[in-house]
Amino acid sequence: MELIITEKDNAARRIADILSGGGASTERSGGVNVYEWGGRRCIGLSGHVVGVDFPPEYSDWRDVEPAELAHAPVTKTPTQESIVNVLKRLAADADSAVIATDYDREGELIGKEAYELVRKANDDVPISRVRFSSITENEVQSAFADPDDLDFDLAAAGEARQIVDLIWGAALTRFLSLSARQVGDDFISVGRVQSPTLKLIVDKEREIEAFDPEDYWELFADLTKEETAFEAQYFYLDEEDTEAERVWDEGDAEAAFATLREAASAVVESVRRRTRTDDPPAPFNTTQFIRAAGSLGYGAGRAMSIAEDLYTAGYITYPRTDNTVYPEDLDPAELLDALSAQRDFADSVSLLQELDELEATRGDEETTDHPPIHPTSDLPSKSDLSEDEWELYELVVRRFFATLAEPAEWEHLRVVAAADDASLKANGRRLLEEGYHAVYPYFSADENHVPDVEEGEELAVSDPRLEAKQTQPPRRYGQSRLIETMESLGVGTKSTRHNTIEKLYDRGYIENDPPRPTRLAMAVVEAAEEYADLVVSEEMTADLEADMTAIAEGEKTLEEVTEESREILERIFEELGDSREEIGEHLRESLKADKRLGPCPDCGEDLLVRRSRQGSYFVGCDGYPECRFTLPLPSTGEPVVLDSECEEHGLNEVKMLAGRSTFVHGCPLCAAEEAAETEDRVIGPCPECGEAHGGELAIRKLQSGSRLVGCTRYPDCEYSLPLPRRGDIEITDDYCEEHDLPELIVHDEGSEEPWELGCPICNYEEYRARQGLDDIEGIGSKTKEKLSAAGVESVADLREADAEAVADDVDGVSAERVRDWQAKAD
DNA sequence: GCAAGGTC
């Protein structure tokens, strides 16, 4: 029996399909698919199934000096036990094994991990390696016809990276976290990729903060030829004799304005016509896909998550790729033919089919990892996809069209005219050949009409305008520009860059979109710059890349590279010496600044956003325990302190981040006052803390406009029940005997009948009982079908189900994912 | 409870 090992299940299935000619059978064991046919078995891993870590005696942050990690041993342990076990079992009775992981450096390392697991189970089985850059009949067949050996040097290069990243990341993260006494969930992280990325954002913010705006003026006037008016802009020649539009002196601007106002006509001095070719774009790699999705309003993480779904469903190729050159195997004509079946694409396909030849554009990056992202011949119907999925699917399809289409042709027309001694210019552009724009509407093809004029012609001048402006600070990085910059610096990979940005949000380093750094982020970057400059610099990646290349080429060993790196880190810790307190003080001060709202109305100390032991947020006084002033915060989302201040209390406003239901809560003191005045109506004892602490349930309105039944001891007690957003709530005299609460009626103008909601606890319990599976985030319609088939038909079923058992029964669902849904269901 | 890199 020959055992074939791929990097992921999807690849295993497709390779089995190709090699077996469609005759492979699937067996599921331990939650892992094994494909089998004529003397062969194929199993897909899930990326890395083992990971590096320190031995357990290094796991306590307080017991081990961070500096000790610089010379700590590093071990490998399975991280995906079930896959590892199945792999070993299959390896034990294999006669040969073939590693068929992805054709890139990390794939070679994942291949070596598989190699070692196979060896452990079977010490004399021959193990070979096949390489192919797209899973097509030709490539796969020829790769398997001529297998190669694993490249252990290349894998070692990857291992060196793992070790260096772990040691640096863990040692410096622990150091900063301990110095600031932030060792719980809110530790302070540092790493080779995240920290230079954060520094990009921080540096930009520093430029913005240091920016000093300058006043300038721009002037415009309309020129008219035979009733066709077009806008022209004033310009002059500066000291270097180059054209300038910005006038820096107000007096000069006023003088030019006077000239334009007094001029009745302008004489055309020059007319220049040029045609410009506008080439179609290159095929999509991950970064360019994220950028294009970004211009449609999708964040990087969201775009990748949708792409992942489209890939898993078989509609597009693998979304994590560096490659911008289609493989030779790809037959555009055949794929176009398949895509013409979809009505939305039929017109574009016919346009392309009329071309004499179909030659795709090529980008600068040509790699072996995967093909560029393109649609497959497996078409979804519009109803299979959500609106967002369809929008991005169409983007991928149309990008594919664009890469096959003709260039566009533009005519640029530049007219310069003189109104007395003031020069005016206009730039027109006209699309002569629509080219790829006809099939790819995402790039602007706007025209700017300037009529045909001739030199010496006299044009009427009207409506002169003088606009006072100011120079603007540099723009912040948007997510996609950040990812492009990371790529150009070689920081991160196609699979991780968007995750890195999300990590910076999670760690409290950045807020908003485009991201802005917090005070904490500024302090972390400052500390790193002073003591461990390398870790916030993209040079660390560049140096490591050079070392990895050397290892891959046999010029250096893994030991040499990691030892050298350990020594550099050791020296950093020597220099850190006794600055620990000072660094910690600065970090703590910055953390406080991020949470500070303003003066406490009771004692004048700072009010801060704090977190209760149960994990909920509230506003508390820095003077605690002497001052016990508190204010509640909404129970949904994470609070962010905004720059804007409440005029009445001088407190900063608060925004609650909760994904798409993010809202501005405003000043917490105003909210508390409003709640106290209006809607706090006590209805009965709190079932959670009523007996022990006398807590009571009340109908309360939150600043966000939503209402709930909540405990009066909030935030100490977080018991709450949902209420409808609209309508007046009537408290009746009928009582629910079970819960000792009055029955409620909702009177909503929008509905004819009042809604007899009843006892709020009974109502909530009933709601939970009938809640559907698709109410839970992350369960799509297809997954729902599969779950139903496995007997999980309602949320109630889900709550009671055994996660492992469900994972075994349902294809493509892990126990972890089930537990995640269960957590959401509760 | 640290990193970054795979994949779900």
Automatic annotation (TrEMBL):
Keywords: DNA-binding, Isomerase, Magnesium, Metal-binding, Repeat, Topoisomerase, Zinc, Zinc-finger
EC id: 5.6.2.1
Taxonomic superkingdom: Archaea
Annotated InterPro entries: Topo_IA (IPR000380), Topo_IA_2 (IPR003601), Topo_IA_AS (IPR023406), Topo_IA_cen (IPR013497), Topo_IA_cen_sub1 (IPR013824), Topo_IA_cen_sub2 (IPR013825), Topo_IA_cen_sub3 (IPR013826), Topo_IA_core_domain (IPR023405)
Subunit structure: Monomer.
HAMAP family per the UniProt record, alphabetical: Topoisom_1_prok
Task of the protein: Releases the supercoiling and torsional tension of DNA, which is introduced during the DNA replication and transcription, by transiently cleaving and rejoining one strand of the DNA duplex. Introduces a single-strand break via transesterification at a target site in duplex DNA. The scissile phosphodiester is attacked by the catalytic tyrosine of the enzyme, resulting in the formation of a DNA-(5'-phosphotyrosyl)-enzyme intermediate and the expulsion of a 3'-OH DNA strand. The free DNA strand then undergoes passage around the unbroken strand, thus removing DNA supercoils.
Protein name (database record): DNA topoisomerase 1
Organism the protein comes from: Halarchaeum grantii
Phylogenetic classification of the source organism: Archaea, Methanobacteriati, Methanobacteriota, Stenosarchaea group, Halobacteria
